[in-house]
Task: structure prediction
Amino acid sequence: MQNISPKVQNQFAMLQQIQQQLQTILQQKTQYEMAVREAKRAQEEIADATDDTPLYMSIGTIMVQKKKDYVNTKLTEKVETLELRVKSLEKQEKMLQGKFEQLQTQIKSALEGKTAPNAA
Result:
């Protein structure tokens, strides 16, 4: 990379940074999606339970008995919150993907000797 201009070297560094951010976002998104699936599965399991069926929730390091309606409400809130986080991460992912592709094009153009538009 010694014969590459400092501008292109800087763009390479930015490209690597964006790639790392994308990987982090994808990992977080995967974790949240898995948590959504788990919460929905729990809702499915308690759907057939009668109102007097003993249900337990994990609170910190202990299990506490709660009523079915309370557990279902908490699971619904958890699903809604996690789905909002997933949507937020998807927006970030899309924005970073756009920046990544733009920067990649600029680097390719610079390496081919063409003039590329300035990086944003």
